[in-house]
Amino acid sequence: MTAQGVVAEPSENPADLDRGNPEGEIAARADAYRNWGRWGSDDVLGTLNFIDERKRADAARLVSAGRVISLSQNFDTDGPQKGWRRRINPVHTMTDTGTDAERGTQGFPHGIGGADDYVTMPLQCSTQWDGLGHIFDHGNAWNGRRAGDVVTSDGDLVTGIEHARDVIVSRGVLLDLGRHLAPETGELPDGYAITASELDACIAAQGASSAVGRGDIVLVRTGRYTRALREGWGEYAGGAAPGLSLTTAGWLHRTQIAAIATDTWGFEVRPNEFDAPAFQPLHQIVIPNMGLTIGEMWNLDELAAACVELGRWEFLLSAPPLPITGAVGSPINPVALL
């Protein structure tokens, strides 16, 4: 409590964290930054509500070079997944092939042939969005709903990813923390916790085009994906990684960003910042309490090089999910248009 009786916001200095008390540190930030009811009791979009038509129109005017850059990893068997929580890499199967067509075994008339295929994969095995039904806090889902009333064996009955099918197009901003904090390599070490002050310092260093505000989609490059491409996947999926500190929750809230994505498996720093058992505590704050949509495993290297080349860090970003009814996440091929 302050002298005036107003509850002080949680500290944004990682040194102030009680490393033995993840429950208390999570609860303090969940209470301070909770957006339940902000957009009504029936809301299914959370902070994506910050994107409006004017925001998209302004973002579209950022396209001057006509350059399009995909921000997706590949979806194939040579991926990062190792079976954790039954997550596997995509399995691509052909059901009709050119060989079948050559041999005339497909049963089509007048020489026509074709190829068909399908893919089996978890929806969060490569570049993806975490939907609002992906994480719960003490049995509560986004907007204060009971988790069991939201996600059942039939899927996410309330905040399914399909609701965002025509929403996630806005101004994108790349914050290249790897280049800013480790200019000699462009890669942050595993376990590096990015702070709110470092996010602000990166914005100041990159210049006015990287200012962050209401309705923006922020992309944070740590360089972890760059290292995986060079050294192999190793522990990329689920292992140690640089990422956002728990103490950035206030920054994520006050900037009023619509969504955020990183080039790492888990968005937040790993190992997490506690000596007691903890798992993805920042997820627990920002998804069910703040209503923030999170992207993971994005490929930001080509975009980072283009931003340096063009001298600007803002662009039109289009990243709609697949409208898979009731899904709590979605694979995506986000594109930046410069």
Automatic annotation (TrEMBL):
Coiled-coil intervals, chain numbering: none
Segments of this protein annotated with the region Disordered: 1-22
Recorded superkingdom: Bacteria
InterPro entries with a match to the protein in the record: KFase/CYL (IPR007325), KFase_sf (IPR037175)
Molecular function terms from GO: arylformamidase activity
Transmembrane domains' residue ranges: none
GO biological process, one term: L-tryptophan catabolic process to kynurenine
Protein name, per record: Cyclase family protein
